[in-house]
Protein: Riboflavin biosynthesis protein RibD
Amino acid sequence: MQYTIKKDIFYMKKAIKIAKKGILTTSPNPNVGCIIVKNNTIIGTGWHKKSGNYHAEIYALKEAGKHARGATAYITLEPCSHFGKTPPCCIQLIKSGISRVVISIIDPNPKVSGNGIRWLKKEGIIVIVGILSNESKNINQGFFQRMKTGIPWVKLKLASSIDGRTALKNGLSKWITSYKSRQDVQMYRIQSDAIISSSSSIITDDALLTVRYKQIKKFNNLHINNKSKIKQPLRVIIDSKNRVQPSHKCIQEPGKILLIRLKHDNNTWPKHVEQVILNNTTSQINLIELLKLLGTRQINTVWVESGASLSGAFLKLNIINELIIYIAPKVLGHCAKPLFVLENYKALSVVPKFSFKKIVKIGQDIKLILIKKLKRK
Structure:
């Protein structure tokens, strides 16, 4: 078989598409796809379905069987070379007789990074690296960031009027945006490992912070067939003054909850609620330390839904990777609550900066997706 860059790109695109099938179930592991090709024919496909299950390469090799000998494997992430919950994929690739491996991107996990490639090359297998690497990284942004920095990928969501207001002066905010926008939010929630909010949001809105099955069941592209397949994110509530009580609706809802506090209280909490005390020298929760804690708990992606104060705190620390704003065609007036509570900046050169990534219309609303603007070197 004659190999060309064009063919490698063609098959890697297919492997990336397959990798996306695990978007709801693979965390804390990355999404990985594998395609095995021989004589211009796909003879095996696989994707990582869940932590602890076979990796993508193993599923593809099982499907290819003895025909894998002399074939090419297209893998979206460097195959593992260490013993974890499953044996190293490199061993099985070598045993199968695969003669060529095309890898989209090197694994950022220090247990793997580069070792899988060296192992394969040592056994005489041709290894090509770097085909559609940005695309493969994009489907695992949280995993890459956690492995490299120790903190998850942070997305901050806000809903506002066209004059940048999030609630009336009396606190009413239901509903500024349309049902379709709120349905879209559920898609982000279900793809996140954790949702961060504040005690103010719990008390003011009586928020549940859960994924609503009724609002997402029509999205067949995520392979959601029934409520039992929904992964509820870890709920993280910042509660420095111990205002959240066992009687709140959020606490009564099943699913793991972390109450992030400065000190314990004497309440009796359900088993699914854990009080986490962050050592701090101020009266405020250290958000960087919180994100580091979540990183140690293998949280790849965080979805922040909160009011102006906490949103402003995240923005000030420059730790927001993506800013997602739903804008409704309504005007709330200058007395209504703003998007962020921030200091009074005195120069445009020091204000937080973002770049527009995407602008889409959802029902009557507009969704803006912005990414952190990188500083020029």
In short: The chain has a mean pLDDT of 90. The chain has two domains: 5-139, 141-372. The chain is about 25% helix and 25% strand. The longest helix spans residues 5-19.
